[in-house]
From TrEMBL:
Keywords annotated in UniProt: DNA-binding, Transcription, Transcription regulation
Gene Ontology molecular-function annotations: DNA binding; DNA-binding transcription factor activity
Keyword Cell cycle among record annotations: no
Annotated protein name in UniProt: LysR family transcriptional regulator
GO CC terms of this entry: protein-DNA complex
Domain HTH lysR-type intervals: 1-58
């Protein structure tokens, strides 16, 4: 069965006259009759009752007309949507980000993209770096925001910014005010990211503690930076978080001390599939690269 068979059928069903349908289709009547017979033979059902006086649809023909008409309507919508996707004005665009990215910039990014591409459905996913890499390799996301490094031949990585580190603590429970006092925290309990969830980040935190002369007693673990900060606020320990979080947190019960003496940073990168040249991706990356760093 080919598309032309369906078009010929609809023409005859509309005109209920083979001669008029043939004229409408700009073909002669005998080929049109043969095409309808071929269609009926393939389906295994008579679609028309016809004689020298009139042509009418059978019950099977009425059902087939209804379904084929709906099929062509769907096909038209598919064609329109495909064209829009090709023009980067429709479809879906999935963005993944790590929890330690300030949510305000994510919100502004989506607002920017929705204004530029109003027909696009934007989806957000808060997932770890390792899962983002896997998702991007499988084509499940279009843009990722991770903490480097990333090693994949299928992925293009671009540095967004370098982030420092800050100790976060409950002001009521911990009495420190300067970086020089960080070494006094060696007896305190710590809240860290799970090693399996963010292995590179976990190793960096251990290096930071070693720089200040102690090995942290990690008692609690979480896979979400906001949960870590909340655990600290609740008095379950102290932690070390990206300075980006510290700069965007104004909770009066929580204190932050930036670790300026140690020369350790974490790279926050934007990742896309190699070869992705879509206008949406370009617009998203350009917005983020020009977003003011607080």
């Amino acid at each position: 069965m080919e598309l032309r068979h369906l078009k010929y059928f609809l023409a005859v069903a509309e005109e209920l006259n083979f001669t008029k349908a043939a004229e409408k289709l700009c073909i002669s009547q005998p080929p049109l009759s043969r095409q309808i017979i071929e269609l009926e033979t393939e389906i295994g059902a008579r679609l028309f009752h016809r004689n020298n006086k009139k042509v009418i649809l059978t019950e099977a023909g009425k059902y087939f007309e209804k379904e084929v008409t709906a099929l062509f309507q769907d096909l038209e919508q598919i064609t329109i949507k495909t064209k829009k996707i090709a023009q980067n004005v429709s479809g879906e665009f999935s963005i993944a980000y790590i929890s330690s990215i300030y949510s305000g910039v994510i919100s502004e990014l989506i607002q920017h993209l929705k204004a530029a591409f109003p027909y696009v459905s934007f989806k957000l996913f808060e997932i770890s770096t390792t899962k983002q890499i896997s998702a991007l390799e499988l084509g499940k996301i279009d843009l990722g925001i991770i903490r480097s490094p990333v090693k994949s031949p299928k992925i293009k990585s671009q540095l967004w910014f370098q982030d420092g580190f800050s100790v976060v603590y409950n002001k009521k429970l911990i009495q420190i005010t300067t970086e020089e006092e960080i070494s006094d925290l060696k007896e305190e309990t710590f809240v860290f990211f799970n090693k399996d969830y963010a292995p590179h980040y976990h190793e960096v935190l251990l290096e930071l503690c070693a720089f200040y002369g102690f090995t942290p007693k990690v008692v609690h673990e979480s896979n979400n930076i906001n949960s870590i900060v909340q655990l600290v606020k609740n008095g379950l320990g102290i932690s070390i978080v990206p300075s980006n979080i510290a700069r965007n947190n104004s909770d009066p019960e929580i204190g932050f001390i930036e670790l300026k003496k140690v020369n350790l940073f974490t790279d926050v990168s934007l990742i896309t599939s190699k070869g992705d040249e879509s206008e949406i991706t370009k617009s998203a990356i350009n917005f983020l690269l020009n977003f003011p760093k607080k």
